[in-house]
Batch of 3 targets.
Target 1
Amino acid sequence: MSDKKEEKSVNSLKQSTHEGVDKEAFLSVVVIGASGDLAQKKTYPTLFSLFCHSLLPENFIIYGFARTEMDDNKFKEKIAKALKDKEKDKQKAFLEKCHYHHGQGYDDTGAFEKLNDILIKAEHGNRSCNRLFYMAIPPTMFVKASKALSQVCQSKQGWNHVVVEKPFGRDLESAEELSKDLAAIFKEDQLFRIDHYLGKDMVQNLMVLRFANCIFEPMWNRSNIANVVITFKEDIGTEGRGGYFNEYGIIRDVMQNHLMQILALVAMEPPVSLDAEDVRDEKVKVLRCIPPIRNEDVVVGQFVKDKEGKNIGYLEEEGVPKDSTTPTFASSVLFINNSRWRGVPFILRCGKGLNERKTEVRIQFQTPPNLLFAESKKAPNELVIRVQPGEAIYMKLLSKKPGLSTALLESELDLTYKERFNNVSIPDAYERLILDAIRGDRGLFVRDDELKAAWAIFTPMLHHLDSAHVKPENYEFGTRGPKSSDELAQKYGFKRNEEYSWPGNKKDEKKDEKKDEKKDEKKDDK
């Protein structure tokens, strides 16, 4: 990242934080589960980035808490491996703020009490002392850790914010139980349920696109829109997370949270204001209009090894039982029973081991009623919001081919971020969300009733899949997924044009080829 890009990235993040954090207060960050994968790969690198950009208070300390026994030096060595190599000076200053404390378990009240004494000494002399507790632990440990720290480790001179990671339960019943248990310990305004997709720049842009532009809102309804497809695709397997993934599957891991958050922003009514509660009120309203998914409107799949044998199948991954029926792919169709969307299918698709990596929203419009041009029936207009990678918004439309020909071609109005905003680097989603948690801005976090409304849509279908031991349809690693998924989308009116390819894909491929060439050149030089 160039220095100019870095500077613009920081400025955009600072602008989005309005008044910013309280620079005079002392901040203690406690990362619970600090020795784990999530903390090492995401939490600490994010805190380091905020530190490098001067977005943390001047006086702060970070304590990792976990069951693994190790001293500060060993812990700092472990953290340093995940931080940016080029920021050596800042890295040293950051690591001086990082410490480690271990307990016999996450419910070890005595260990949390000792940690509290350490934090009080560090906070000495400050009138305002705030604490952020980040739960980088399995959901089954949330309540035990919360009970222990709430009894002996909360600040009495400032706020206490608790960040919890998904998944929030396995179904409606377990989510309600978890919410009830946490509500008995913390107030709702202390809890920050993080779904990192809400921190992605393009997801936040959905509201701007809809409500700041006059051209979209009048056509944003069942009279003009034929269907909406929300897609999440990964071209990798579980990457060593087979044991964890097998407990939840792709529907609980991705569809019920990430894709439903995007759906709510696409489909909700205009909020009264941009206040966090007003926005979340509208999201809850639209989720409550969605009936439970019907079993016949679901396709589940599981990837098997590719023909070349370069990539193993899901059942061959470490930690996965050989008879597992956990889906690595799912496609489902939802309907919203309100006046705006009644009858419009919302098609959700997500999977691992597919042919590409991308997340996008594809809004397919109705065909013109006059049908003067036959091509318009085959290639309806589409508005595509590319969330990642290569953030973009483009509108697919038909145009006359230049010259004497009368033939039509499918082209696009294209706003590709890296071309239009080539000097701006988009902040990582976790940077924005952790900063908001410090600020107390809950707009990009999931509210209790929002969580329950989403689980109510999926629970009957999930119980059916589990109880009936529904066998997923096999699909080869590196393909588009099960054929039944395309058939389901086609059944509900989605028209896929195999002849069209967004130019942004080709540009990305060329850049990847150039990167590979440079890597090969460096290897040759060595």
Target 2
Amino acid sequence: MSVQPSATAAPSTGGPYNVASLYVGDLNSEVTEAMLFEKFSAVGPVLSIRVCRDVQSRRSLGYAYVNFQNSSDAQTALLNMNFDDMKGRPMRIMWSQRDPSLRRSGKNNVFIKNLDKSIDNRALYDIFHSFGPILSCKVAEDDSGTSRGYGFVHFESEDSAKDAIERVDGMLLNDRKVYVGPFIPRKERMKNRDTTTFTNIYVKNFDPGMSDDELRELFEAYGTITSCKIMRKDDGTSRGFGFCAFQDSDAADAAVKRLNETEQTGKKLYVARAQKRAERDHELQKIFHQKKAERQRNYQGVNLYIKNLDEEMTDEDLKTAFMGYGSISSAKVMTDDKGVSKGFGFVCFASPEDATKAVTEMNNRMIGRKPLYVALAQRKDERKAQLAQQMMTRGVIQPPMRMPPGQQPMPVFPPMYMQLPPGAVAGSRPFIPSLRPQRAAGNWNRPGPPFLMGGTPGQPFMPHGTMPMHRAQRARNPGRTSNQQQRSGQRGNRGTPSYAQAHPTSTSTAQSTEGIGIDTEKLARSTPQEQKQLLGERLFPKVREIDQFNSGKITGMLLEIDNSEILHMLESKESLRAKVEEAMEVLKAHQANGVADTAVKTTK
């Protein structure tokens, strides 16, 4: 068949594609932009060419886009260069469709199956192009480039697709009767499939020494069998399953009902309707999600997460510590491969009321040398969402503000745990780094005792040269500063109980916590602000070992967590690394959203 110009006429400008842009597919991985430019520039002026590549490996994905200056040149290239050979593979050219909804809808798309192996993209195009303009035409191939026996033809109009189905369906192509029909998306096929009518059955769990003839004898009592096959390995040994196809669906249904779970040579057979892999995976995923949802419902409000456990604590010890609050279904201390405790575990109660009572009374209770952290168990995705919500609520991560056109938005940073410059005294006016990256980066890595910027967790970052209102007032009235501070300190001491008074500790906690060098007695006597100071001094170097570049921001984020959790992180490298990774994911998501919003504003 000769190629007719009407078959590839340029689509109207109102369509969902660019009339001067072409999609070039089925490219060899060695084809570059220069090779494509050399070929397509012979037709007319080319504005741009882009070979799509993998983000990480930069390897070609096998397709490219060619943008011409004139739509007439693009149409000429489509007519004359389609299926031309380049680096040993024929190019497949079609109009570029920027709107994916047209491709995914399946509208005007025709499905052809039972094709001969010799029919390729060019031959399929030659067969169908006479029915109307074709947007795309492809024969499905395996990894070796061999035809899978089916293909797709996407027409521009619905009338062309209907005409092709009516005239080609049932025809002989290379002595094979082909099926031509409208393309049905996989979701609709899965939804509308008929599971009651089938002829092919799947059999497994039979004797490894069974032959194809013995399997046939087992099933032929229920009807006429067209084929029976046991799947085997390369060495000829059985893979433990096979297929048996009946001529009649009623016979196949009877064989499944009567032979499934019957004993043969000491084993119970499994006999069921044969399924395609996609259908089987869909059902397995459905069963998995159902069981997961059922587990979540069963353990909702009754499963507790406990950490800060002593290394010597066992499952029985954990159960004994919590059994006074109600009936316990299970108690487990998590251990590593060597059986060493990871410092946390789970206790599951029979009722939500008992679990709530245990959380209220056991959280922060001293068991051994550490205060326990007790809370309802959460999934990982729930913890990430809660952490992100906490950061947004407390002002740690704020969404970028919308600024008038032409103005740059103020940068918003998470709280940073910074280091004092040499010679600075802790408690004096905090050192605020310049917003210029080179100076900030240098100040973060200077040696010296670390402190929390602003003195209070969650206090927003202030640009260089600015100060809070109360500091500005002290700067205008320097004579009153010392007296005011002295009076306010006296009032605070009289009216506000110290943390040690509000949280008395036993004498056993006065010892330094092993491995982190913090005097728990001193920590208990300190105010909440001083506690964050002490914990931050130990936490910052450990975070910097994991992530050197974002250690200041991550430390500021981690200091928002409860102190008992921070103590556990200081003792457990695994727990600290997990929290740092969670904080990094939240930080990256925030930065990505900020970049996207800035890009949108710039385009506007």
Target 3
Amino acid sequence: MPKNVEGLTNISLSSDSEHDPAVTDAAAAGQAISEQENGESNKDNNEFGNEVFNSGDGASNGIVNGHHVHNYPNSTEPLDEAEEAHCLIDQILDLQKTLDDLTSRMDSVKEDNLVLKSENQVLSQYIENVMLASAAFQQSSPKSRKRSRNMAAKLVGYDFWQQTLKSPKYIVAPMVDQSELAWRVLSRRYGAQLTFTPMFSASVFVTDETYRKKMMQTHASDRPLIVQFCGNDPDTVLKAAMMVQDSCDAIDLNLGCPQNVAKRGRYGAFLEDWGVIFRIIRTLRDKLELIPVTAKFRVFDDVDETCKFAKMLAEAGASVLTVHGRTREQKGPSTGLADWEKIAAIKKCVSVPVVANGNILCFEDIDRCLKTTKADAIMSAEGNLHNPALFSPNFKLPVTQAIEEYIELCEQFPASLSSVRAHVFKLCYHILQYEKFLFLREIISEMKTLADVKNLNQTLKNALEENKLFVDGLKGDLQLSVIYCQARVRCSGESKDNYPKVRTDQFSREDRKRTLAQIQAEHGNCSVRQAKQLMRNPDKDFSKATRPWIHCVCRQPKSRDCMHELCKICCRKFCIENKVACEKHRMKVLTSQNRIDGIAAAS
């Protein structure tokens, strides 16, 4: 407040000040200030909600911000100087309060303006960033857009196991040509929580687009999913992994395949260079942006070497280790039993999740394996092939129902016919061990379409119904009726509760060769293939005609309606050499008269 206005509050209202020039000047100044403030107050009247009203005594009174402002009475009677000074001072005091209030309000408005200005600047910067990001998004490719949407901090180890995979307990193993999409979906329907694709060759996957499209099939319901590759070159495996990292949850490196093809290709269990293995896993760990890498391997004969190998894989960057408790020599007739004690030793020496694989034939085996190995989960391969409901406790899945559901899934998710035949044979394994159902083997081998598979399933239903009394007394390896899916027990006397340590009926390689040679000699030097069939079924009769047609001299089927009962190639040679004709194969004897007739017809 101005000093000349502030000083007016101390004016004495004595009679001696009646003609004091200071009082006169103060009154004039106060009136000027009052008129100015009243004008501003009326201007802002709507903003602050002030009201002006007249009191009943004829004096004009007002309220500005809750303070009374007194104006001169409307009466024409002159006021004495004391009354006039008193009114003036009251007005000045009220105006001072009003001015202070207005000043504080103006300061508050300035602060609000500063806050709004700051918020506007932040909002403007945010809008600019959004526009730049939108422009970059429009210029990016669809694949990079999808990657940007899914991009998050890559999880590894137990974080990956718990958050991405949801701590699975039941896992279906990767199986060449047999863990295709249709079978994975069927396994999930009966309790599987995590599945693997079949093993893919990284080099073929990178170079062959047809192979890539045929083999890599997935679906929204097929998650979580791990894709397995085999290979011995870090860059090649990385290129293959980059092609599928948007469609799966992890990449698995196969270090356990014991087949001869793996030996020739130097991968799987025959990739013995630990340095190469380390570089492959470390490359995948560092270069894959979205998903981690895992590894599956077989144990060694020495438990210390096995633990050392597992530590190397974990140090290289494998987020999960799947351990098959058999060595690479344990395959085919020498499969034997998995060693759970070695898996338990590996679990103790690494800090990443461990999955136990081997000896899982029924649901009761799962708890036994987890208690023995302390593993985080179990994996099943052959047990799952014989019984896709392996992970469903107290549930018996009829063979015919399993085939029917699998056919329906194959119609939705196409599978190769070789995979279909293999699955059907595994499901029917225990039924096919009896003579009354041996005819089904030939039907399975000759299936060429899904319609044929449906016909087989109907034939199987009819055969089981016709032989109901006979079938009711048949038990499989797990003491269930053969009409239900159940795993195959490889060893004689082997059961789910007591596995023998050594197979008593196991042939060595030399014994097997001698046995095959003896069988060939006893059956008129039959082929090795026939000798193997006779080893499994000594009563097999090869004299029966399995084909309805007659054979040509070259042992190929003859052409139907051929005049000489030969195949097309042999008939052609026979007609040329003997100058004879064959209407079936459109072979004619060309003579001079034929040439003349042909020229005449052409003209």
